[in-house]
């Protein structure tokens, strides 16, 4: 995976910059580009490897954002970060026009929770030449948590990702630009999320770099009983589990703490490899 090998270590830490008024854990804090830049700068100083900029909340119950509003939210933030900081930017969007504009502004990855399923998104992603993270979800944010059901959640998530990867390669997106994401919290119960976390090695074994985003989500609250503002320890623990199970990137809000966890995982892995 060129973009990951060239620009970032593995496992890498991706800091979340939600340029939205309504994201579930930090909505409104970074919709102002100056605040978003300050947050990105603090993340870089804390050792982050990526920043993920998004202009549309995809939390359960979220409504889609009009195109121009999404552009107005993310473009100034991408421009500022690209101008002021030396950190690869991924763009969290499903809109082809936003993908194209983000590529023009200097992003390094498209992070699409809808796996390029919107009209024009495959062509846009292909034309940008960028890495693309595809993600499993069941339903749309507005209703995905109403009653998620699977006969076998791991097999169904793997089946979707494998099918989508094959479709995208057939559409001209080279396989070495793809990343897999099981989509924690996207149409999953707590039990479904825990099965996917415990069996993350099976997703890593498919051969694509795996991105895992569990930070502050309801699965953390469901296990720990903590409210969203107290979920940092549980989030770092979940990210550490994912990294130890082979995740290439963990997508988090609490960067400093997760960077320390990533450094521990990398150090032990490097030392351990010396022993053999
Ligand atoms: N690849 C990927 N992208 C994602 N984007 C948003 C969220 C939702 O979390 P957050 O951005 O913190 O909240 P909101 O969607 O409310 O902005 N989760 C993922 C994820 O798990 N994987």
UniProtKB/TrEMBL annotation:
Q: Does the keyword DNA damage apply?
A: no
Q: Tell me the route in metabolism or biology where this protein functions.
A: Cofactor biosynthesis; tetrahydrofolate biosynthesis; 7,8-dihydrofolate from 2-amino-4-hydroxy-6-hydroxymethyl-7,8-dihydropteridine diphosphate and 4-aminobenzoate: step 1/2
Catalysed conversion reaction? (7,8-dihydropterin-6-yl)methyl diphosphate + 4-aminobenzoate = 7,8-dihydropteroate + diphosphate
Please give the superkingdom of this protein's source.
Answer: Bacteria
Q: Which UniProt keywords apply?
A: Folate biosynthesis, Magnesium, Metal-binding, Transferase
Looking at the Swiss-Prot or TrEMBL record, what is one Pfam family this protein matches? Pterin_bind
Could you say which cofactors this protein requires?
Mg(2+)
Transmembrane ranges?
none
Role played: Catalyzes the condensation of para-aminobenzoate (pABA) with 6-hydroxymethyl-7,8-dihydropterin diphosphate (DHPt-PP) to form 7,8-dihydropteroate (H2Pte), the immediate precursor of folate derivatives.
The name this protein carries in UniProt is Dihydropteroate synthase
Q: What is its EC number?
A: 2.5.1.15
Q: Which GO terms describe its cellular component?
A: cytosol
Gene Ontology MF, one: dihydropteroate synthase activity
InterPro entries under this entry? DHP_synth-like (IPR045031), DHP_synth_dom (IPR006390), Dihydropteroate_synth-like_sf (IPR011005), Pterin-binding_dom (IPR000489)
């Amino acid at each position: 995976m060129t973009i990951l090998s060239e620009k970032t270590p593995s496992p890498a830490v991706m800091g979340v910059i939600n340029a939205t008024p309504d994201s579930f854990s930090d909505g409104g804090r970074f919709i102002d580009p100056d605040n978003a830049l300050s947050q990105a700068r603090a993340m870089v100083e804390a050792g982050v490897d990526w920043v993920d900029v998004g202009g549309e909340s995809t939390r359960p119950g979220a409504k889609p954002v009009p195109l121009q509003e999404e552009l107005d939210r993310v473009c100034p933030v991408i421009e500022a970060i690209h101008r002021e900081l030396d950190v690869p930017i991924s763009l969290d969007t499903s809109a082809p026009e936003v993908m194209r504009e983000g590529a023009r502004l200097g992003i390094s990855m498209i992070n699409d929770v809808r796996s390029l399923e919107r009209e024009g998104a495959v062509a846009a992603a292909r034309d940008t030449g960028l890495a693309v993270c595809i993600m499993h979800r069941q339903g749309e944010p507005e209703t995905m948590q109403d009653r998620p059901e699977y006969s076998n959640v791991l097999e169904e998530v793997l089946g979707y990702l494998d099918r989508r990867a094959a479709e995208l390669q057939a559409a001209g997106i080279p396989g070495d630009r793809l990343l897999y994401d099981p989509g924690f919290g996207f149409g999953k119960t707590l039990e479904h999320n825990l099965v996917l976390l415990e069996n993350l090695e099976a997703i890593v074994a498919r051969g694509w770099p795996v991105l895992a985003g569990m930070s502050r989500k309801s699965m953390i609250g469901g296990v720990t009983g903590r409210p969203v503002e107290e979920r940092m320890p549980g989030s770092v623990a979940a990210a550490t589990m994912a990294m130890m199970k082979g995740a290439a990137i963990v997508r988090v809000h609490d960067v400093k703490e997760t960077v320390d966890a990533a450094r521990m995982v990398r150090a032990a892995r490097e030392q351990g490899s010396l022993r053999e």
